[in-house]
Protein 1
Amino acid sequence: MFRDIASQQCGAGGDLYSIYQMMLKGHTYKTFKTTPGTLECREACLADFRCQSYNVVMFIAICELNNRTKEARPEDFVKEEDRYYMAKGPKRVPLGSTRELPAESCKEIKASEGGQAVSGYYWLDTTRSGNSILARCDMKMGDIDECAMSAMNTCHRKASCINTQGSYNCTCNPGYTGDGLTCAATNEDAPIRLTGGGANYGRVEVYYNGTWGTVCDDHWTINEANVVCRQLGFSGASQAKCCAEYGQGSDPIWMDDVYCQGGEAKLSHCTFLGWKIENCRHTEDAGVACNH
């Protein structure tokens, strides 16, 4: 008799197929008793937009409405001798298309909807908190596109956001330097001076935001030293000095990981992590010796 009921539901318009002695476990949101030999379970599922599929408990005529399909959660589709599983079919509301039917992830939507899932905005509840958010899914990656919404990434307003699998990267725009979370213009004409030495040699200090500070010697080469010396009016540098050769300065350490091509007019025009973004100590203060 139960196989006959399943067969009737398959051909009754709206249901796609039934699978005998299988069930979707862990996604039932409503359970109720039905009249044996009727299609009450099917009718209840068709009437409820949240219903994605349903299980029928045979012999005791219990209906279990599910808010997922076996395609969405194949790991939860299990063998159960006393049940059969029914798919809702073409009348099913796509997962993530309404606030009341959020998906847990973009990947789940892609699994549920197959080729019908295209990149766009979907309702998600990634923590099952009951609070859905509208987020953009990149279906090529099966992942949230955090870059599509400023509230979902922490990139600086002068940075570009690049979506990656499970996360995102921030990169400062051309003309700016930093880690992407903080970006500063690279063409700022920050004054510099030499201290702790003589007229043409000493510890390099930069004046920014009303305060003199030092430069870290990470990647401190003759290229960077040449830029410093030319900015100060010398023809170039004879040496790039590391390791607080001319004594240790005091806070702040304004610049770290400075990369100059060698032709920049100002040290602050070179690429660096960003103002006061550093992992140095004053034992790493950079210095230069300039040509007379």
Protein 2
Amino acid sequence: MIRIAVCAPSTPITPHDAQAVQTLAAAQFPGVELTIHPQCFAVAGHFAGSDAQRTAALVECANDPGIDAVWFARGGYGACRIAEAAIAQFDHAAGQKTYLGFSDAGYLLGGLYRARIGRPVHGPMLADIRRTGGADAVTRALAYLSGARDGLEPSLAEERHPVAAFNLTTLAMLAGTPLMPGLANHVVMVEEVSEYLYAVDRLFFHVAAHLGGIAGLRLGRVSDVPENDRPFGADAQAIAREWCQRHAIPFLGAADIGHDAANRIVPFG
């Protein structure tokens, strides 16, 4: 039996989200015991409960020796507010777990990777059940946590460098903080959603300056780009290529990750 705990370090899910995923898990993964922490449904303004509530739930899940994996419920915003305090309370049991999520969960994945705690993994979250094709995304996540590896990002099959994957905004905000992991000699994958192209350019301006020594960068999907009042003049790939060139970072092409149901799985390391 694989025991998976779900908590929400950022924003809440609904009972309907939880029921849909529990039903899918019961039907397709009889060897999985899925426990959804009540904190996932708490609401305090934007967040899934107060900082104290979110921290306590995360620490409880991480430190439970009967749990094999912690699955983050949803992104949004909020994980950066609790990541350092939560990770500081993790004990030996926390180091034995897989931690799965993406987007805002990247603050925790980055901090865990820096602290060498557990196995951080970029991949779909419970709330992805809401997306078109979301059942496929949730199935991919549960299959990975059950031991399957067919949902991995395709380039990993031939990759010989360690790898990490982040939302571009999250990585930009991590840079220069105590949560930022060392990424020298890594292939770094980034994706983005709902940002103007000028904002993507600005993010790369900052991120590229903090990625010296990486083995290369892959660009995932940059989706739902708003239309500006004037065209930027370059698409996301051209932006990534330019900033990689400025900082002597090898640009390695596309990554099959993004804010969508096709988001593939990238274990850190």
